[in-house]
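Dear colleagues,

As part of the handover before I leave the project, I'm documenting each prediction I ran so the next person doesn't have to rerun anything. This entry is a single chain, and its sequence is reproduced below.
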Amino acid sequence: MSTYRVAVVGAGPAGIYAADYLTQERDDVHVDVLEQLPAPYGLVRYGVAPDHPRIKEIIKALGRVLAKDRIRFLGNVSYGTDLKLDDLRRLYDAVVFSTGASVDRPLDIPGIDLPGSHGAADFVSWYAGHPDGAREWPLEGPTSVAVIGAGNVALDVARMLAKPADEQLVTEIAANVHAGLAASTIRDVHVFARRGPAQVKFTPMELRELSHSPEVDVIVHPEGFEIDEASQAAISGNKGTRLVVDTLLKYLEAEPTGAERRIHVHLCQAPVEILGEERVEGIRTETMELQGDATVRGIGEYVDTPVQAVYRAVGYQPSPVLDLPYDASAGLVPNEAGRVVDLDGTALEGTYVTGWIRRGPVGLIGHTKSDASQVVASLVADLEDLPGREERDPDAILAHLAERGVTVTTWADWERLDAHEQALGEAAGRLRVKVVPREDMIAASRS
């Protein structure tokens, strides 16, 4: 029986779900999942704070997919460097890009480029042990910092900045990250949200977790805690919104315990300028008021807060993908039902996108599964009409990468690295200790 071969570029949840649906829909489809890192799972491994192990439970389900007979994991393979779109078209019948969104959206305000101003994505990569991220982080010196944003990433960043380092020693935190957090002099973290309590994008669980450390007080400032008619309608109509507002209200009414570390939540405060001459010295925000339709407007009153560092957590955006069209204004690859189309509307035959690179960085895991299902339906509908690959040998991809000098990591290699990290964790009384340097990951996977 003739078989089809499909390449999925990106081994995060979106790519893995696409591979799973492809092999469910067609018995004659084999999938290679190509990943630039030596390990799979994308932002589940490298975008989730180490003290969120239950969120990483999804890794077990994703692992069962990658272990399937007709799915092959090929790690440490960089699209755009080790191979290009023409190579993939020669080797595969179709290509699905699921490269995600891993860079910060820009925030265009004066002073944003001052030393001491950081993007959340870079900080997350550091504390999550990304092999291509920073090894050190400047936490020694600042005593007060600002976090700009009203989503879960902002809460993760605030919690990691405020929480004592030793409380992380039950997690998979890497040694260099623990050392960096232990040296931190930060005692006050100010989170600024431009809208009110019913409009923030926090989830209830993430918001409640802010207060799980006995060494941290969570202080919601009363200024900006506005509930208008539209807010009340949102609270009444959505359980999640109601729980978020209730949690914020509890923080607002609670008496501080006198803890040495504090997370301050400021609502209806929009950043307008980062203050400082040679480095960050403060943040200026404008007071906003609700307009009755879930929007806000500035009232021309400003507040200056002394801080020595700023972290912007205003969302991620996908990076352009080599040889694919890119809509910079929307931050995604133009597509119709997952089929990549050029900016003039011409379809790129046999080329598809799924996940955040398709729809932008919105939605949770459930949205990602639904998205992958829709894209796979498009691919399967097209499959028999595609021109087909030139190279029939399924191992031609391995020969191509060997010629390029690429050290490919396989699923068996990942299982060895996984076992090695768990052994490191067992020796330390933890579930896992993450290996950070790429060369150490590869060495452990081959040991």
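The chain has two domains: 4-101+318-409, 104-316. The mean pLDDT is 95.

All the best with the project,
I.
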